[in-house]
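Subject — a protein and its fold

Tokens — whole-number codes for backbone shape
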Amino acid sequence: MRQNLSIGEAARESGVKVPTIRYYEQIGLLPEPPRTEGNRRLYDDGHLSRLAFIRHARELGFELDAIRTLLDLQDNPGQSCSPADSIARVRLGEVDRRIARLTALKDELQRMIDGCSHGTVADCRVIEVLTEPLGAAGSGNPSVGG
């Protein structure tokens, strides 16, 4: 069991930057570790495990409030996992909506490229489309960029 790790060592082990570790402590996602008489933080495997959980959840795009709830569920394993499922379903919906926006963006860019005559700028479909008001370029989706 690893213990008495400095914040730098905890950062290297967990892949979370030092200022981020301090921030997670400040907002209560990570319990403050014990300190030496010289006020140096001392981390252990429990801290590293929690940091890995938070880092992975952030990589998946979960917001801090959702992570807080997920950590609470993890800390109380006797609870129903229904809230965790609900949080994951909400995140999946967000990802699906983002994929739809990106797909529409890709399609619009492809239409611009396909319409290019490879002639002069005066005949350039890319320039023409970018000059048109948002949504008028045939995408039918004024929120493609949003």
